[in-house]
Amino acid sequence: MTGPGPGQWFHFGPWVFSIDAAQALIATAPRDTRALDVATWATAYGLTRLDDPHTVSVIGPASTGLDRAYAMTTDLATPLIVAQLTITGQSPAPLLIDGVHRLYRARCEGVPRLPAYLLTAEETRQIQNNTLLGPGGTTIAPPP
């Protein structure tokens, strides 16, 4: 994906997350991976309904937005990256920012779990940019 400047970016609504910056943070502060449940996340990202023309995915890719051939060549041993968005007054909410193609392949091949790195909410703010809020603006205020 493209974003503000060279590198790999994940876009979610008005937010843009730098995958390169996330990988650098993980390299600087190594951590263990966590097991990500493929069925749960594939369902949440709409990967179970990609070929249904009557559904629209709110979080994941559209049916034409996922390169299935490429997905089947991805390395399932490479950990996914899960960010955490801060929602005012609530616990951080997880968001998969790197690994949707690997998640698709794992679902197709019946792999039950994939390794994933979990970023903290502070780390997520460091790798996030928002054209409306500026760098680090991941706090979501509840409706008035």
Q: Which class of secondary structure composition applies to the elements?
A: alpha+beta
Side-by-side strand order of the widest sheet: 3-6-4-5
Uncertain stretches: 138-144
Shape: globular
Question: What is the C-alpha radius of gyration, as a whole number of Å?
Answer: 15 Å
* Proportion of strand residues: 15-25%
Taken in chain order, the helices and strands follow as EEHEHHEEHEHE
End-to-end gap = 34 Å
Helical content stands at 25-40%
Mean pLDDT comes to 84
Largest sheet: 4 strands, mixed
For the secondary structure, the number of strands is 7
Give a written overview of the molecule:
By secondary structure, the protein is α+β, with helices and mostly antiparallel strands. It has a domain at 34-122. The chain has five helices and seven strands, in the order ββαβααββαβαβ. It has helices at 19-28, 38-44, 68-71, 100-109, 121-127; strands at residues 9-12, 15-18, 34-37, 80-85, 93-98, 113-118, 128-130. Strands 3-6-4-5 form a four-stranded mixed sheet. Strands 1-2-7 form a three-stranded antiparallel sheet. The longest helix is centred in the first third of the chain and has 10 residues, at 19-28.
